[in-house]
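Q: How would the structure tokens look for this protein?
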Amino acid sequence: MKSIHQRHRVKTGKRSEKLAERYLKSLGLLHVEPIETGWVILRSGNRIKSAFPKKKVSGDFIAMEPETARLVHIEVKHRQADRLPWSVFEDHQIEKMNAKTEDGALCLVLWVRGMEIKSLRWPIPGFGPRKSIKWEKIK
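A: Here is the predicted structure in token form.
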């Protein structure tokens, strides 16, 4: 059974992703789609014993630029704090964004804070291990 904190985090994450999806569409991106996670569900009789993702996904959304038809890969981070630290990114997320960028895709990090969103293009200059980005410094 999930704790109250876990349930709140899931609810906040889903709300942030819905807000991010509307934001991406408002930018004029086409075919904005969430990247789905397949789940393995272990049951004991009729009850779910546990569930976990089949594999780590590469991001939260994919979309397409309207003029160039270039792939846009989006990672959404929800943080109320005034800083976004490197440590909130998992290794596989960083690896996927780097690989997608090298392949010619546009990678975006959307930082959702309350009802506000700021967009950062990956790779983010000066951002790396033991570094963070300040909310007020993002244009």
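Residues 4-137 form a domain with the Trna Endonuclease; Chain: A, domain 1 fold (CATH 3.40.1350.10).

Helices lie at 4-26, 91-102.

Upvote if useful.
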